[in-house]
Design brief:
Elements: H1 2-19, E1 30-35, E2 54-60, E3 65-71, E4 81-84, E5 90-98, E6 105-108, E7 122-125, E8 132-133, E9 141-144, E10 150-152, E11 158-166, E12 169-178, H2 180-184, E13 188-194, E14 198-200, E15 211-222, E16 225-234, E17 245-250, E18 256-261, H3 262-267, E19 283-289, E20 297-302, E21 305-310
Parallel strand pairs: 1-11, 8-15, 12-19
Antiparallel strand pairs: 1-4, 2-3, 2-5, 5-9, 5-10, 6-7, 7-14, 9-11, 12-16, 13-15, 13-17, 15-16, 17-18, 19-20, 20-21
């Protein structure tokens, strides 16, 4: 009789869960997949092997962190997923970050003693307290869903799709036509000043003090003259953000060789036929052609497109 009563009670619990109030009934497993664009000839895409680590965050609609998990060795592919178990029915916000590990990036607002709030958590670039970033940055990735929320249903396994984007860009800078004395006897550096080191969990830029991305420019013989080369990795660029400024200067004297607004400079290529935007292009090759006969105009090539800039330092 005891076994019969226990079975009856258990049956009643499941009946209540299935047929009546489902709010306290855990859903089935939720599989979170990642959509991304692969590289093709002549076009940008995310290289799966560049995503070395993934952290997935699930928030309720009050902005409270419900669960977080990390994959330290993801194998990104159309079949790859991260699994979230036993979410209660309701609406949730799913956010993932890629490569926030090591010393370059960190989370703010997530500690062992705090579960985290969506509107208080950020991803921050580290080691810029002195106003400079001298690292070649690891790629930083962000992913979320298109809708404002995903609805989790009780007693049902579900598939969630997150769209992944990259937040890092590569700026390759070359100066052609330096005479040997100027290039070989002086050390030059390329700088990009910006205030884009911190990111909210909607991938918008959070408040950040201005700092400089800095890389030395290596002098190399080129026919009878010299060339200077540098490669800088930077965080988010956008057509609507005209803040970043590119400078080339003498390391010792700090004298400027060239300075211009980076975004305006890149988009100037569209005026002569290019179709550059900061979604489909993440690598930029900027080549300056020295012309000592004119201090008012500079001839440049932006990803192969010839551009003339007026009233810049050169």
């Amino acid at each position: 009789m005891k076994y019969f009563l226990f079975a009856l009670a258990l049956s009643g619990a499941f009946s209540s869960c299935i047929n009546e109030d489902l709010s306290n009934c855990a859903a089935g497993d939720t599989r979170v997949y990642f959509n991304y664009t692969l590289p093709k000839a002549g076009s940008y895409g995310i290289v799966p092997d560049s995503v070395k680590q993934l952290q997935l965050f699930v928030f309720d609609m009050g902005g409270n962190l419900v669960t977080e998990q990390t994959d330290t060795a993801p194998k990104l592919s159309p079949d790859y997923y991260m699994e979230v178990k036993a979410l209660l029915p309701g609406q949730y916000k799913f956010v993932a970050w890629g490569n926030v590990a090591g010393r370059q990036y960190s989370f703010t607002g997530l500690t062992k003693s705090s579960s985290g709030q969506l509107d208080q958590m950020t991803v921050d670039l580290q080691d810029i307290g002195d106003g400079s970033c001298n690292d070649q940055l690891h790629p930083l990735f962000y992913a979320t869903h298109a809708d404002a929320a995903e609805t989790i249903v009780a007693d049902k396994s579900q598939r969630i799709q997150l769209q992944m984007v990259e937040d890092t860009y590569k700026i390759n800078v070359t100066v052609m036509g330096m005479d040997s004395l100027s290039a070989a006897d002086n050390a030059y550096q390329a700088e990009i000043s910006d205030n884009n080191g911190n990111y909210k969990f909607d991938n918008s830029i959070a408040p950040c003090a201005e700092f400089n991305y800095i890389q030395p420019m290596a002098a190399k013989p080129a026919t009878h003259l010299y060339r200077l080369d540098a490669s800088l990795s930077v965080l988010q660029l956008a057509a609507s953000r005209k803040h970043p400024v590119l400078s080339i200067r003498n390391e010792s004297t700090k004298a400027l060789l060239f300075q211009d607004n980076l975004v305006e400079l890149i988009l100037a290529a569209n005026e002569v036929g290019a179709a550059i935007n900061f979604t489909n292009t993440h690598d930029f090759n900027i080549i300056y052609m020295m012309n000592e006969s004119s201090s008012m105009s500079v001839v440049l090539y932006i990803n192969g497109w010839k551009v003339v800039r007026q009233n810049v330092i050169m």
